[in-house]
């Protein structure tokens, strides 16, 4: 088949970008001709024989929504010239055969946060909702890849979408994030903790995310500060993200947490070594469509504390780890983190036992199967 995948921007380490490249490479590996259309590409270009990267002409507009409208026009023009068998949109692009829903329903989210009059009067919100309507509305026939059960409920509630338009996908964890043999695990854990300055009798909390506030780093630091003094003094906090380190240090300073126990780390392609080095992942996100890093943690036997807004929180709960319900209360997180640290050995065993029976890496396979079935039907 000839497959066109559209993605507004590609850059290393982004979750949506990783999924895009995995889909493209798996289709190319199966012998399909794949074209990936984008406005820009940062990082190394793939060299797969059946995979072509194409660029739209330069897009100039004042707002993100206007730029996305312009990109949608370019995708339509490109699609009409190419004779493709199936199209997959990774952003909210109308008229695609399939759309990969990486985020929660924006209409549902905005209605929870703003008055109806605000949404009606704001040009930006009107544009966002118009773009979503074009993909999910009743006039659209686009099939929707979903990656969390909560998404389906939200989209159906807001748009009345029939069940046959939904194609649920399993988690899309990179197989490179699966845990290595036990001996290697122990070695990497010791080496990584040594590099961070975390002693063997100390504890390491980990948060992975590009946005300090959206991922709830301030909440996690507050929970660390609320630990009993004896426990707090031997607990470290590491965050992988693209925020300036001073943001993390400033928040920690206000909570009277020593800077030596705070470790801001840059984005990196694989976080496996940090997952092995950590004792508990704390992910109290304010907004999180899925949270692939949550299943990556579980797969490595790392217990997780997260908020219920995370799309993959059901996996965390199924592993027997704490999930903080909405509406969010900081005291609930404080208690959950303290209790998880108090029973770490049993919680790690429980997490590892659950993960051993799960398929956390099947997303790409299932998605390309669906595209092939569509073309062959």
Index terms:
377 residues, alpha/beta, Rossmann fold, 16 helices, 45% helix, globular
Give an overview of the whole structure.
This protein has 377 residues and is α/β, with parallel strands linked by helices. The protein folds into two domains: 2-170 and 362-376, Rossmann fold; 175-355, Glycogen Phosphorylase B (Rossmann fold), CATH 3.40.50. Helix content is 45%, strand content 16%. It is built from 16 helices and 15 strands. It has helices at 15-29, 64-82, 106-113, 116-121, 123-136, 149-159, 182-196, 217-225, 229-232, 245-254, 272-277, 292-299, 313-318, 330-342, 344-355, 363-376, and strands spanning 2-6, 9-10, 33-38, 40-41, 51-55, 86-89, 98-101, 143-146, 166-168, 203-208, 235-240, 262-265, 280-283, 304-307, 323-324. It has a seven-stranded parallel β-sheet with strand order 5-3-1-6-7-8-9, with helices on both faces. A six-stranded parallel β-sheet has the order 12-11-10-13-14-15, with helices on both faces. It has a two-stranded parallel sheet with strand order 2-4. It starts with a strand and ends with a helix. The model has no long low-confidence stretch (mean pLDDT 93).
